[in-house]
Design a protein that fits this description.
There is one protein chain. The chain is an all-alpha fold and 152 residues long. The chain has one domain. The protein has five helices and two strands, in the order αααββαα. The protein has a two-stranded antiparallel sheet with strand order 1-2. The longest helix is centred in the middle third of the chain and has 26 residues.
């Protein structure tokens, strides 16, 4: 039961962070953050954070974790977008005007952005685990980016 509460807590907190970031990104452009981004963002955070919870990935280089995390986010975004935007026609996002898009649900531009942001996502999940449950160890965001840009 404690594990379920931990996962749901992380899901909600990371989802709120993602929902807020989405709003800060879209509102200045005249858009808004749809509430469905909270569970979608939370799911992405849980899945990406799960990478370094699996023993075979403990010592994986940050850029490799970022690559895997980017694939996870794009997969969740594509599946969510296909269901919400194509099947249910909610039109929450549409990247069809951007080059190298797949059905308007994911695109290369945001894939690159996700790759660059992924160390932050990994750090947030690790930081929350440390603060709430004293799991792992505390490290700085700048340190993870140093590892990321030096391919360590």
């Amino acid at each position: 039961m404690k594990k379920i509460i931990k996962i749901l807590s992380l899901w909600f907190v990371i989802g709120m962070i993602y929902f807020t970031a989405e709003g800060l990104w879209r509102i200045p452009k005249g858009g808004y953050a749809n509430i469905v981004m909270l569970p979608i963002g939370g799911l992405c955070g849980i899945l990406v954070g799960g990478i370094n919870q699996i023993p075979i990935f403990y010592n994986l280089k940050v850029w490799k974790q970022s690559l895997i995390g980017t694939v996870i986010v794009l997969t969740v975004e594509y599946i969510s977008g296909f269901i919400l935007n194509i099947i249910f026609k909610l039109n929450i996002w549409d990247y069809s005007n951007l080059k190298f898009n797949l059905n308007g649900q994911i695109c290369l531009t945001y894939a690159v952005l996700w790759f660059v942001l992924m160390p932050t996502a990994i750090w947030i999940e690790d930081y929350l685990r440390f603060v709430f449950w004293k799991e792992g160890y505390k490290y700085g965001l700048i340190n993870i980016y140093k590892e990321f840009v030096t391919f360590r």
